[in-house]
Amino acid sequence: MRKKLVGKYELGKILGQGNFAKVKLARNIETNELVAIKILNRDQVLQHKMVEQIKREISTMKVIKHSNVVKLYEVIASKTKIYIVLELVDGGEFFDIIAKNGRLKEEEARKYFQQLIDAVDFCHSRGVYHRDLKLDNLLVDSCGVLKVADFGLSTFSQQVREDGLLHTACGTPNYVAPEVFTDKGYDGTAADVWSCGIILFVLLAGYFPFDDENLINLHNQILNGEFIVPPWLSFGAKRLIRCILDPNPLTRMTISEIMEDDWFKKDYNPPCFDVEEDVKFDDIDVAFNNSEENLITKGWTKPVPMNAFELISGSQSFNLESLFLMEPVPGVIKQETRFTSQSTANEIMSKIEEAANSLNFTVVKQNYKIKLQGYTSGRKGCFSVIIEVFEVAQSFHVVELRNIGGDTLEFHKFFEKVSLGLKDAI
């Protein structure tokens, strides 16, 4: 019997199944590569109002291109299904490994913890907080490479409130940082670090530092930081765990401090970064809004039109005032920003190229989209940014800048410099 084809993928056996999705093994018939395809029922997604959550998860995975994060290849849609094509990780969940084999030796636990910290550090450099780091969401391949998965509860730094904090309590109780339980807000980076500390403890001990069937008792344990470090651990491991599982987020160890810790640094090999490819988000909206079986990216002879819904959804709190300001607002630039212009699209493109050349960037153009790439590679890879021009009206354009390589600080500095060269167009 002929197997079902989805695009260029031949579907195989079921690898896993949940309430809203199933994951199947699949083969790319062009390359023979095996992949995992997450299959969602469109009606169920709409019925349970999960569209924004799934779109956020897909967008996040496209932004986070790292060797220790499960890779997302593409999104395909049919009239009834949404297919998310993912890297196949064949070693299983870490939770099952610990449940079956028990705790790890320090050398092995350190190797995986180093990879976890590398992945989380990279996510934070892209303005992404995972918010549900746990053994169930960590996979390992047959070569012993850790992969962070499931960004369904993740959020972007742009979504913090004016106080600079997150306010949505989420995650899995045994892994959640104490400040998340309060209603005062929390810092996404510190909360993710706490979860990493819980994972390190379980890898080394084989059980949770905080555990109680009664949820109130569990919350109290976590809020008070009440746990006992196993006596068989080395002094360095004990010290690191205590510094990470500090109930006070202001004095809790940071990722940069973890990376300087002697226990962590032993046999540590920093990750290498490849030149990042252009991140395309076109297929996400198509998957949820279109019923075509195969996705087609169109070429444009003029900028992509931006409709009213996109203008509103791109504005904070549905307030269009900030979007149409004629000057960028200081201090609000994060991983992405926009400005408006009454210049023609070609004039805008020319000025962008001119500004980029003066900053010594390589320039790659496609229609009314430009990718700028730096030459030097830092700890977060080469700095790179996508600039795209959208048409709102014949003489009115929105220019969007997205950081896809390097860290946020580099993006801030870049915007300050490039906006000087574009001041006549803004």
Structure characterization notes:
The chain has 426 residues and is an alpha+beta fold. It has 14 helices and 16 strands. The chain has a 6-stranded antiparallel beta sheet with strand order 1-2-3-4-6-5. Strands 11, 12, 13, 14, 15 and 16 form a 6-stranded mixed beta sheet that branches. Strand 2 and strand 3 form a beta hairpin. It is globular and about 70 Å long.
SSE inventory with pairings:
Elements: E1 5-6, E2 9-17, E3 21-28, E4 34-41, H1 42-47, H2 51-63, E5 72-77, E6 81-87, H3 94-101, H4 106-125, E7 128-129, E8 138-140, E9 146-148, E10 155-156, H5 178-181, H6 188-205, H7 215-224, H8 235-244, H9 255-259, H10 262-265, H11 282-289, E11 304-305, H12 308-313, E12 336-341, H13 345-358, E13 362-366, E14 369-378, E15 381-393, E16 396-405, H14 408-421
Parallel strand pairs: 11-15
Antiparallel strand pairs: 1-2, 2-3, 3-4, 4-6, 5-6, 7-10, 8-9, 12-16, 13-14, 14-15, 15-16
Helix pairs in contact: 4-6, 13-14
Could you name the CATH topology of the largest domain?
Transferase(Phosphotransferase), domain 1
Determine the N-to-C terminus distance.
60 Å
Give the overall average pLDDT. 79
Give the CATH architecture of the largest domain.
Orthogonal Bundle
Assess the beta-strand content as a share of residues. Answer: 15-25%
Which CATH C-level class of the largest domain is it? Mainly Alpha
Order of adjacent strands in the largest pleated sheet: 1-2-3-4-6-5
**How much helix, percentage-wise, in residues?**
25-40%
Number of helices: 14
Alpha-beta classification:
alpha+beta
CATH superfamily membership of the largest domain: Transferase(Phosphotransferase) domain 1
Order of helices and strands: EEEEHHEEHHEEEEHHHHHHHEHEHEEEEH
Task: Return residue spans where pLDDT drops below 50 for at least 5 consecutive residues.
Answer: 290-300, 312-333
Instruction: Name the overall outline.
Output: globular
